[in-house]
Amino acid sequence: MTVRFSVSLKSRSGKSGAGSTVSEYEQRFKTAKRSGSEDSKDDCSRIVNLYYDLVTDFYEFGWGRSFHFAPRFAGESFKASLARHEHYLALKLGLGPGMVVADLGCGIGGPMLEIARFSGARIVGVNSNAYQLERARKYAEEADLAHLAEFMHCDFLDVDAPDGSFDAVYSIEATCCAPDKVSIYGEVFRLLKPGACFAAYEYCVTERFDAQDPRHLEIKADIELGGGLLGIDDRQTVDDALRTVGFEVLETRDLSEQAGPSIPWYQPLVGSGVSLASFRSSRIGRSVTHNSLRLMEALRIVPRGSARVSEMLNLCAMAMAEAGRLGIFTPMYFIHARKPG
Ligand SMILES: C[S@@+](CC[C@H](N)C(=O)[O-])C[C@H]1O[C@@H](n2cnc3c(N)ncnc32)[C@H](O)[C@@H]1O
To answer: pLDDT band at 231, cuts 50/70/90?
Structure first.
């Protein structure tokens, strides 16, 4: 896996190496503005695409094929918790054979293949990043699930499908990348059949976030830069946007607050990693990866700039863990809404 990671980094970089792309990303990020304007939408999609070009191999190496967090029960493996978090959406949406469902921002297809296998529904994975879709297609073939998995290479703000195409729509930690919630939820509303439902996990700041606290602001800024996000909304903004576009809100709830799971969602980002599976995402595992990359960069085994990307992701991971501990941020604000019939 380590060899595949370095080969993949090497083969995907142009002559200038990842360094020029990471500086382009940082430059664009600094000057981008978040608003509902067309310019801001273009800025946002370019930045997100650059970001995922840079980080996809790192995510896959450090986290696996599902690029999201999950609450975890004592004794439950990391992988099992991710799958349960995915099944929960399928359960809430009542997915089953014969249904056609959109996964907005499908990543490299980990969740959609799991949900297709679990529910028997046909899933259309929408993603603006070509490299991720290439990997998702490959994994669908390998899993013998090509008959239940279709892919669309487009912006999820402008999906190339007629109104009312889908029996359900879900999204996992992806609509947070949209420039504003009204635009993305409006598109979801358009895509759903009357009476059909939308469910998602949103990134949100909680009511403990204090916009006057410099440390809170710093943490939020590190999460945004290292996570390819032009902003993080609060829960009220999410709820209001759902209603503004016409949804009937069935449930909104922060799953990180429930009493059950005893291992918090940010645990894989801290400590030393108790198993090989969790080692790479842990603080010590990330440090090993980072130092190896610096060495491999010096030896020209991986492209210039790879260590800079890993540094940016480390900063983001530390900020997320601190935000989790302080309770000022959640990556699992669960939303469930229905388009009136
Ligand atoms: C954090 S990843 C989550 C991926 C996937 N849902 C998972 O859990 O594995 C966010 C995903 O959203 C996609 N994305 C972000 N903005 C997008 C846009 N405007 N249109 C389509 N896809 C987008 C990214 O390319 C990436 O695949």
So the answer is: very high
114 touches 135 (CB < 8 A): no
Any ligand 1 atom below 6 A from CB of 111: yes
Distance from residue 33's CA to the centre of ligand 1 (Å): 20
Measured from the Cα of 227, ligand 1's closest atom is 1
Ligand 1 mean position to 176 CA, how many Å?
Answer: 9
Query: How far apart, in whole angstroms, are the C-alpha atoms of residue 202 and residue 241?
Result: 13
Mean pLDDT of 43-71: 90
User: Which two three-digit tokens encode residue 59?
Assistant: 């995510």
Query: What's the token pair of residue 134?
Result: 């290439």
- Distance (Å, whole) CA 274 – CA 285: 11
Neighbours of 145 (CB within 10 A): 17
110 lines ligand 1 (CB under 6 A): yes
Give me the mean pLDDT over the 269-273 stretch.
Answer: 65
- What are the phi and psi torsion angles at 233 (to 5°)? -85, 165
| Ligand 1 atom closest to Cα of residue 45 | 19
Q: How is residue 69 written in tokens?
A: 């967090």
